[in-house]
């Protein structure tokens, strides 16, 4: 089951509210999820928007908001929602286009002093405003990651090793020691997980433009790891073939394989090799401000 689009929550919301009872917004969201979206996986339920809200909760909330604009529900008091007579007699199918054709929906937008909104009914879009923001941010992020991977494939191999070690340090794995560039036995760096160096992680970083990491590369890496550690991280700008991954999984050592796609995701997440260009503020009404004491 896929996470529903915000417009796909219209009917489930009205179905939960059809009794006429007043619901707290939080209780409404939980009930809609429990009754209609119980097949979603834990991973789907934990998925977040770019602003940190739970995605499924955000889409149900936007569905509720659009139903209010269309006159299908109303808010009897702050934080509560109830169905209207119009909502009780809704059609068996309800889309964004249906809501946008409602006079109440158009009247809502006429309150906004923007000429483009006054001149015509808003055009249909199956994405909520939050979805549109997330989709735009994702496109920018994907372009940055693609450019970042291209940069990594073009840098000096020794500098690439430094990049990997800096990333792991930024991720909280402790201070690192670079190995000598000759006779390093296939080990590019060592991370001490504790200050005394009692627990070590060995690092291998391979900058490949073409081809994949093969089983022999993993075997050589395992062979180069001394007896004082059983943990290793093999990082590449390309990918691993199936035999290499199988060798890493079946080894007595704990070997983590990070390909180019995963590498740039981690660098993007921990701000290594990138910088924040612009920050936008998303504002909403402060309900507590208007709550009379």
TrEMBL record:
InterPro entries named in the record: Mrr-like_N_dom, Restrct_endonuc-II-like, Restrct_endonuc_IV_Mrr, tRNA_endonuc-like_dom_sf, Type_IV_Methyl-Rstrct_Enzyme
Gene3D superfamilies, A to Z: 3.40.1350.10
UniProt key word Ubl conjugation: no
Keyword annotations from UniProtKB, A to Z: Endonuclease, Hydrolase, Nuclease
Top-level lineage group: Bacteria
Restriction endonuclease type IV Mrr domain boundaries: 153-267
GO MF annotation, one: endonuclease activity
Residue ranges of every copy of the Restriction system protein Mrr-like N-terminal domain listed in the record: 6-89
PANTHER family named in the record: MRR RESTRICTION SYSTEM PROTEIN, TYPE IV METHYL-DIRECTED RESTRICTION ENZYME ECOKMRR
Protein name: Restriction endonuclease
Organism: Hymenobacter defluvii
